[in-house]
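hi! just following up on the protien thing from before. the input was this:
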Amino acid sequence: MIKRLRPALLLLLCLGLPVSAEQPAPLSYLTEAYPPYNYSDDNILRGIAVDLLISATQHTSKPVTRSQIRLQPWPRAYRTALSKPDTVLFSTTRTEEREKLFKWAGPIATTRVVLLARKSKQIRIESAADLQQYRIGTVPDDIGEQLLLAMGVSEKQLKHSANAIALAQQLQVGRIDLWAYEENVARWFLSNAKLEPDDFESVYLLKQGELWFAFNPQVSDVQVSELQQAIDNLRQQPGRVGKTRYDDILLDYL
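and the predicted 3d structure came back as:
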């Protein structure tokens, strides 16, 4: 039996040193271009969620750096987080449908998922039944698309693109009638598409909720709890006058 032991382990035993339990694998952090929560600015990752993650973990056993975070299209990042152990995805809207798919730490911030339209179209939506006549732009696997499908909206009505700016431009020129997306993020992309955000309006609220860090379910509870505790601590730490460090991060972007 002893002959089968690895030399390094055998040396530890001979020296009487403790053998450490197997450590959890390093986590892989995935995000998307979803400003102001997470985005790339001159190849530097920024945003509310990015700053929150880095600040919260600064004094933990596993501080996170910007270089550990990978920016990917949402459909790819979402499917990777579902299938690959040791993966964390943000910023993820927490819903009943997603609840058991992930483990959660947060929240990062509140969120409003809406349907946007051009004001000049004077579109009024009272219920899901009113949506049947419209072409709706969505990002695949995004919360907006998932909510619409859950409401019974036909897949044929949805016009997919992983590029949010492309959807903003399609809304402008009339290739789609409505755009299902997070309200703050949509208005950010409208500006970046060199469009006037005031020309557009939110005509229907799909969901008001919260954005969270979503962990693949195989990530250990200890690792999830460590980030949760770090976020909770940040919400208690004093920041600028009358604010907490968490408040300071929000105010830097909103």
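The beta strands are 28-31, 39-41, 44-46, 69-71, 87-93, 103-118, 136-138, 158-160, 178-182, 200-215.
The helical segments are 7-15, 48-57, 74-83, 143-150, 164-173, 183-192, 221-236, 245-251.
cheers
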